[in-house]
Design brief:
Low-confidence stretches: 19-32, 273-280
Helix content: under 10%
Largest sheet: 5 strands, mixed
Strand order of the largest sheet: 1-29-28-27-26
Number of strands: 32
Structural class: mainly beta
Radius of gyration: 25 Å
């Protein structure tokens, strides 16, 4: 006689279903809430000369550059320097400089450029992924801007005569230069933007009247200029393509996954917030020619940093990720209140950042 199997009670299926649902809820909450990280403070102070670099933190310590790794502990000696130097870094280059000396190293700590000056003063150094720029002034107040490729080979020198730039930067391949100057001869001051290619060939000349330009973003055919109360887009001949008022807003960050589509992140200036909207922080994501995005954040939440794919905000002891469309992402619990977040250049997929909290510095992987 065939053996008969007993039917499985219905309550067993209900119990299994409840377990599956609970597991799904747990995994969903875990993916949203993220993780708590154990922080190891670096042996460096926020007041020291330091900058994010090479998946860690580069620090000027007496006459040496030392590199702090993400796990904390003792820093490793990186390269030679000088005690009174300033430090600037990019994805693959780091420069330590003062009024008379410029040393530039690559990510492997190899010296790619060394310049010692006796008859001019170094005013500023800028780095890009494919180049180096050094601005100097001689005893006759004549300014010159020398450019080098990322291997330290001289490229060009631009004679600015007696004009001291507000700012300058490097961009493009082959290497190009932009320079901003402030003209005050008339009643209305003018910010003039000039762009150059190798051979001192002037490729762009843009005049912005009545506004101080604080940020320049060069694109293939146009330039985005962020001023004190407007964002402008010009072509390289100086023809204005668009203008948007940002009065009452302040710039928080600028980034883009697409070099031709910059994303400007703004938040309300404290004085421009009313009593009703003060509890909520709003981020305005602006990109020329695209529809605006506004992200409303909970009370006591502040912008922290921007990356190519997402941005991060600080609230209490946490850092939370948001997409540029406003979707909330994972949360990282730090166990301490962050004061500032600086992403490390070049860490794109798993973005690491230097986090400041009081007198301590940490390196964390952002959510």
């Amino acid at each position: 006689m065939a053996r008969r199997f007993r039917a499985i009670p219905r309550w067993v299926f209900w119990a299994l279903g409840a377990v599956v649902i609970a597991a799904g809820i747990f995994l969903g909450l875990y993916s949203l809430l993220g993780r708590t990280t154990e922080l190891t403070p670096l042996s460096v102070s926020p007041r020291d000369v330091q900058a994010p670099f090479s998946n860690g933190l580069l620090q000027l310590r007496n006459d040496k550059l030392v590199l702090h790794n993400p796990q904390g502990g003792d820093a490793q000696e990186f390269a030679d320097a000088f005690p009174d130097g300033k430090l600037v870094t990019d994805v693959r280059l780091a420069a330590v400089w003062n009024a008379q000396h410029v040393y530039v190293y690559n990510i492997n700590a190899s010296l790619v450029l060394k310049r010692d000056y006796s008859d001019v003063t170094v005013l500023a150094v800028r780095l890009a992924q494919n180049g180096i720029g050094i601005l100097t002034r001689d005893g006759d107040n004549r300014c010159r801007l020398a450019t080098f490729n990322s291997q330290g080979t001289f490229q060009d020198e631009i004679d600015l005569k007696d004009q001291v730039p507000l700012d300058f930067g490097l961009y493009g391949q082959p290497l190009k230069v932009w320079v901003t100057l402030l003209e005050t001869q008339s009643e209305t001051h003018v910010t003039r933007l000039l762009t150059y290619e190798k051979g001192q060939s002037l490729t762009g000349n843009v005049a912005v009247a009545g506004e101080l330009v604080t940020t320049v973003y060069p694109m293939k055919d146009t330039l985005m200029l962020v001023g004190t109360s407007h964002v402008f887009v010009y072509d390289y001949t100086g023809a204005k393509k668009s203008e948007v008022s940002i009065h009452g807003w302040q710039m928080e960050g600028l980034c883009s996954d697409d070099p031709e589509q910059p994303l400007l992140i703004l938040s309300p200036q404290p004085a421009a917030q009313t009593q009703t909207d003060r509890p909520v922080r709003t981020l305005w994501i602006y990109s020329p020619g695209k529809e605006d995005t506004r992200i409303s954040l909970p009370a006591n939440t502040f912008f922290a940093a921007a990356g190519d794919k997402k941005l991060w905000v600080m609230a209490g002891t946490t850092i939370q990720a948001y997409s540029y469309t406003g979707a909330a992402g994972k949360v990282l619990e730090l166990g301490t209140t962050p004061d500032g977040v600086i992403p490390i250049p070049g860490t794109r997929r798993q973005v690491r950042a230097v986090v400041t909290s009081g007198d301590n510095l940490y390196i964390v992987q952002l959510p």
